[in-house]
Amino acid sequence: MGGQRGIGAVGFILALVIAVFAVIVAIRLVPAYLEYFTIKRALVNTAQSPESKNATVPNLRKAFERRAEVDNIKAISASDVDITQEGGNPVLSANYSVKVPLFANVSACIDFSASSSLR
Fold it and tell me: Is the pTM higher than 0.90?
């Protein structure tokens, strides 16, 4: 006679707790990643716009600031954007950290590095 097969009550509850934990973490972290992709898109669009080719650094910052306001970007400001030239084209980049509270006194700190460079 064979033993019983399948998941027991304790195993089911443990799997449920792990699944709920994973869902809570995902729900808390997704907005930070969505904002990162929005920032990356704003940097790329600002750097690739036709008027950016010969624009000064203050003009590029203002252009990014306008895009950031429209896209509701709160994690960085125009002063946080580093602007360099690469092959005659502007390259905008930003490094920043986001601290996301998960539960109680546990937080996740995520470091992002966004750039308009195609590399």
Answer: no
Listed in sequence order, the DSSP H helices in the chain are 9-48, 57-70
99 touches 21 (CB < 8 A) = no
Query: So where are the chain's domains?
Result: 9-115
Give the residue from 117, 98, 116, 105 showing the smallest Cα distance to 43: 116
Mean pLDDT for the stretch of residues 37-47: 96
Q: How far apart are CA 20 and CA 110, in angstroms?
A: 21
* Cα–Cα dist 14/101, whole Å: 23
41/55 Cα distance (integer angstroms): 19
